[in-house]
Amino acid sequence: MDQLNQAALYVLQTLGSLYLMIVLLRFILQLVRADFYNPLSQFAVRATQPLLKPLRRIIPSIAGLDIASLVLALLVQLVLMALTLLLAYGTTGSPIQLLIWSLIGIAALFINIFFYALIISVILSWVAQGSHNPAALLVNQLCEPLLMPFRRLLPNMGGLDLSPIFAFIAIKLLDMLVINNLAQMTGMPDVLRMLM
Q1: Which residues on adjacent β-strands are paired with residue 62?
Q2: For residue 50, which of 68, 30, 74, 32 has the smallest C-alpha distance?
Q3: What is the number of domains present in the chain?
Q4: 3-state secondary structure string across the chain
């Protein structure tokens, strides 16, 4: 692959992954019932609205979940992977294979969003506990549904919250045992694994 293709691939993967993360974040924010009026939530809504508006006419919400944003995330991932393969190898491959790889990529990104939100939450608990910053509030709202089952299982440790450690372990095991094995079993190329 020549340097121009590498540069194009870098720009495509960086900007495409950023937009994909915003689309998936919009779905996750609705899933965890985060504050809709938070400025970061409003940013996610405004950034995804132009592409979601036509999809919402076709795809209804199911049980209060915005399925259209999940479908948009899948479509963005599919296009991103197809263009990546086209730039790297000159072909897009099988549409069925692309769909399977896109589903795996979306699942990996879903897990990664929670993983990094947990890291940010732990750091904020050390340096800015009780902060009213919109980003800190949103991160806490993202992490709370994930940490709640672990908090119920763990005994009270006198103010020390060990639930993030167990959440990290669970997320990492899910990534190692499920996502990576699925990527290997389906023969996902390394150039596409960078999108996960």
Answers
A1: 65
A2: 68
A3: 1
A4: CCHHHHHHHHHHHHHHHHHHHHHHHHHHHHHCCCCCCCHHHHHHHHHHHHHHHHHHHHCCCECCECHHHHHHHHHHHHHHHHHHHHHHHCCCCCHHHHHHHHHHHHHHHHHHHHHHHHHHHHHHHHHCCCCCCHHHHHHHHHHHHHHHHHHHHCCCCCCCCCHHHHHHHHHHHHHHHHHHHHHHHCCCCHHHHCCC
Nearest to 46 by CA among 25, 67, 31, 65: 25
The amino acid present at 71, given as its one-letter code, is V
CB atoms within 10 A of CB 15: 11
Give the Cα separation of 176 and 180 in Å (integer).
5
Q: Which residues of the chain have pLDDT under 50?
A: none
- Residue 12's contacts (CB-CB under 8 Å, 6 or more residues apart) are 80, 83, 84, 87
Through-space distance between the first and last CA atoms of the chain, rounded to whole angstroms: 21
How does pLDDT run across 35-91, given as a tens digit for each residue?
889 999 999 999 999 999 999 999 988 888 889 999 999 999 999 999 999 988 888
Residue 144 region, left (φ>0) first, then alpha (ψ -120 to 50), else beta? alpha
Cβ contact 108:161 at 8 Å: no
Tell me the CA distances in angstroms from 26 to 19, 73, 185, one per residue in order: 11, 10, 30
